[in-house]
């Protein structure tokens, strides 16, 4: 049975406060914006969901001013109290988890299970932040001077700009905003223009906690063109930190603009992630992990598996099993019972098709998939079949990450060859090795092994948990979000020295007496 927008229940839109026309700016109140109208369509069917009246420069100024004013008040609340309000926001997200998950699915295209999982990730980081609000630890240090005390503490930073991508339209904002809030910051969110409705809904849910306090602007939102509103965020000195998720070229621009005014960045950019499969690997486990990593979210995760570096002795067995698994992948409406939904739009499909053409030109073999696809009832959607191709790592098409369900099979001789090939790409986000040998696994995780920010053993490249710091090296940007001590990026560090003596000794034994 086919599914179209007219045949499924879209009542979740109304429950989340999504109207036919929506304001694109929030700063404690929803503004009457003056920008152009943005029509939002579902990649599942190509049908319009709703419209957004976008913000212009004047609207941005109102939002930025309100976000800064909210910061000045918010920073004075004790951190555990800020954590309590974050806890309440987490509870609100739990209350609307089903509706938010469906919206993520309908607007972005990932299947419903992944939509729910993304909202759960937002809830999880809220829970994490609650505990962290009582653990913004500094240091106590011994001074070389008698009767002096030294310590280090972390203070709120300011308004944090969050520029998020379409592929995780709720979780990435939560990674940043929940931690920023407990650190005493406000946030100014500029979401992708491809998924603005999720941003509106997440904001509407969260500010139910903050508006009664008169602090709704702690979670401010501005939707508009990147060339206009995005540039204003990057140039605004009231925004000392910008967390940006997107392509490597986008991240380079953000870094340059922020550096020009001595601003800080958290950059989460391209991945080009690889799974290494050794001859002693559990091939069934490896195959399933690779399939999920490459096919999940239609290959549009930052951590999606792009390359499989397989030892020659098991290459044929692994490829055979992957082809069997790929043959079972059902593609269709993401709110239906399928494993793969659409890509974000037709342009994204074409980008993958263009990469496949380049692979063929270089002599690569297409082992399966790589074609446009039209599920019944979703003829207006942006679908394609997931592709497996043989390739060589040095090809430019492999070096340049393709953001979609295109998986490269690359043979390697041994562990040393695998590590060399693995690291020989410009990006460095997520990596994985499948082996039953402890020495092999530890070699991959060592300083001379994977050069990525994430390195796994016997699990895939995608599906990171919120407890660890998330981010990568090289052209991935070097930023870290989510768990571990990522909270420190949202603070300013201060070193204190307190003299409680009756003397004024100088450090390093310096004498500077007038008498």
How would you briefly describe this protein structure?
With 515 residues, the protein is an alpha/beta fold. The chain contains 15 helices and 25 strands.
What do these coordinates show?
This protein has helices spanning 11-15, 57-74, 79-95, 97-108, 112-132, 171-182, 196-210, 226-235, 248-259, 283-295, 315-326, 346-362, 396-399, 415-423, 438-445; strands at 21-23, 25-26, 37-41, 48-53, 139-142, 148-156, 159-163, 186-190, 219-222, 241-245, 264-268, 273-277, 305-311, 366-368, 372-373, 383-384, 387-390, 406-412, 427-428, 430-434, 454-457, 469-470, 473-474, 481-482, 491-499. By secondary structure, the chain is α/β, with parallel strands linked by helices. The strands form seven sheets. A seven-stranded mixed beta sheet has the order 14-17-18-13-12-20-21, with helices on both faces. Strands 2-9-8-7-10-11 form a six-stranded mixed beta sheet, sandwiched between helices. Strands 1-4-3 form a three-stranded mixed beta sheet, covered by helices on one side. α15 links the parallel β20 (430-434) and β21 (454-457). α3 (79-95) packs antiparallel against α5 (112-132), α3 (79-95) crosses α7 and α5 runs parallel beside α6 (171-182). The mean pLDDT is 97.
């Amino acid at each position: 049975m086919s599914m179209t927008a007219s045949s499924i229940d879209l009542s979740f839109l109304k429950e989340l406060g999504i109207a036919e026309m929506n304001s694109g700016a929030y700063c404690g109140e929803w503004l009457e914006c003056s920008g152009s109208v943005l029509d939002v369509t579902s990649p599942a069917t190509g049908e319009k969901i709703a419209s957004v009246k976008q913000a212009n420069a004047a609207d941005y100024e109102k939002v930025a001013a309100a976000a800064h004013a909210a910061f000045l008040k918010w920073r004075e609340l004790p951190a555990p109290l800020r954590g309590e309000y974050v806890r309440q926001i987490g509870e609100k997200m739990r209350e609307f988890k089903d509706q938010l998950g469906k919206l993520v699915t309908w607007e972005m295209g990932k299947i419903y299970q992944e939509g729910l999982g993304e909202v759960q990730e937002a809830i999880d980081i809220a829970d994490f932040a609650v505990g962290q609000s009582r653990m913004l630890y500094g240091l106590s240090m011994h001074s070389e001077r008698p009767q002096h005390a030294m310590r280090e503490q972390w203070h709120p930073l300011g308004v944090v700009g969050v520029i998020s991508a379409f592929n995780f339209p709720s979780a990435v904002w939560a990674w940043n905003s929940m931690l920023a809030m407990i650190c005493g910051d406000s946030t100014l969110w500029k979401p992708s223009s491809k998924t603005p409705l999720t941003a509106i809904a997440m904001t509407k849910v969260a500010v139910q906690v903050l508006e009664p306090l008169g602090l709704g602007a702690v979670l401010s939102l501005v939707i508009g063109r990147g060339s206009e509103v995005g540039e204003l965020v990057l140039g605004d000195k009231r925004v000392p930190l910008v967390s940006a998720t997107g392509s490597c070229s986008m991240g380079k621009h953000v870094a340059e603009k922020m550096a020009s005014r001595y601003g800080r960045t958290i950059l989460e950019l391209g991945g080009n992630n690889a799974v290494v499969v050794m001859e002693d690997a559990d091939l069934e486990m490896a195959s399933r992990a690779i399939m999920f990593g490459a096919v999940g979210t239609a290959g549009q995760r930052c951590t999606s598996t792009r390359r499989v570096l397989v030892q020659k002795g098991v290459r044929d067995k692994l490829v055979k099993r992957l082809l069997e698994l790929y043959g079972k992948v059902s593609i269709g409406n993401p709110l239906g019972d399928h494993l793969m939904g659409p890509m974000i739009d037709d342009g994204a499909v074409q980008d993958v098709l263009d990469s496949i053409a380049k692979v063929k030109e270089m002599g690569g073999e297409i082992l399966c998939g790589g074609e446009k696809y039209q599920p019944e009832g979703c003829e207006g959607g942006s679908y394609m079949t997931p592709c497996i191709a043989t390739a060589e790592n040095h090809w430019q098409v492999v070096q340049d990450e393709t953001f979609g369900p295109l998986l490269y099979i690359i043979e390697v001789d041994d562990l040393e060859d695998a590590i060399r090939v693995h690291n020989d790409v410009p990006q460095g986000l997520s990596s994985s090795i499948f082996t039953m040998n402890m020495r092999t696994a530890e070699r991959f995780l060592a300083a001379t092994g994977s050069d990525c920010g994430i390195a796994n053993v016997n699990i895939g490249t995608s599906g990171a948990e919120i407890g660890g710091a998330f981010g990568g090296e090289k052209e991935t940007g070097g930023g870290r979000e989510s768990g571990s001590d990522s909270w420190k990026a949202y603070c300013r560090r201060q070193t204190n020295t307190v003299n409680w003596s009756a003397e004024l000794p100088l450090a390093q034994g310096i004498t500077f007496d007038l008498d």
